[in-house]
Amino acid sequence: MSYYNLFMINSPVDCGNPQLTNITNSSGRSVSKNWLRPIRRDGKKFCAWCNQKELGKFRSKYCSIDCLETSSAYCYPQSNPQSFFFLFKRQHNQCADCKFDYSSTLETLKKDKLSNTKKRIARKIESLKEMPVDQALKLKKSIQSEIRKFKKNILAQYLFDLQTPKKIRRHHRKLKDQREPEVDHLVPIGAGGSALGFDNLQLLCFKCHKTKTSRDLAHIRAMKRQNP
Questions:
Q1: Residues of the chain where predicted confidence (pLDDT) is lower than 50
Q2: Residues 80 and 73: beta-carbon distance below 8 Å
Q3: Which of 83, 19, 9 is nearest to 48 (CA)?
């Protein structure tokens, strides 16, 4: 994910670059997206991912943040926060196997975030007492703006950002309930499953992932014995 995109994009952009077929059959767990090049036709240059929009003067490779982030998630599906978000939405905040629901976890993260914001506002209000009048007036406007956002966020849903996957895992590690969400391949790569994209991915809690991994390894060993 790029540092300048603070929040997740809602849905992946379809790829229209014919070069993608060259990496779809790759045996690796990830590939560098750097080999993707803008499409040139009729003397014009088009987006290296969607192949739909012409690149402007200041767009060297991708036509939008959505295309850039989708390409990153597609090429690095297990380590990219954006692919995690796609799967989380697709599975309605649940583990694909046991259906453990992470909605309560998101609510806890939201409460923690609101609590930290409330403490920060309180510290700023306290600091007003020791400031010169002109500085205090400027800070007061900033505090009022932050209070308005705080009230608005009380009723809003938890908003995913780059750190959300880490926060969810950290929360469940503290609980020691083995519910940390992990990205898993439906069909293991060792059994011929695709390593790229989102179709062969699912989110499992740690407990279910551990069980499935043991089952998959046993299946792969059996395949190797049958086809030495």
A1: 1-5
A2: yes
A3: 19
144, 171: one domain: no
CA distance 69 to 46: 17
Q: Quick one: DSSP state of residue 128? A: G
**Cβ-contact 172, 180 below 8 angstroms:** yes
Best CA proximity match to 4, nearest among 84, 79, 91, 62: 62
75 and 113 in a single domain? The answer is no
Structure tokens at 50: 């969607």
Digit-coded pLDDT (tens) for 197-221: 899 999 999 999 999 999 999 988 8
Quickly tell me which residue has 């694909």 as its tokens.
96
In a domain, 8, yes or no: no
Task: Pull the structure tokens for residue 36.
Answer: 């993707």
Per-residue model confidence as pLDDT tens digits over 91-101 = 999 999 999 99
* pTM of the shown model: 0.83
Report the amino acid identity of residue 126.
E
Note whether 14 and 50 are within 8 A (CB). Answer: yes
Residue range(s) defining the domain that contains residue 42: 18-90
At residue 176's C-alpha, the angle toward residues 170 and 181, to 5°, is 50
Look at residue 46 and tell me if it is in a domain. yes
Here the tokens at position 41 are 């036709």
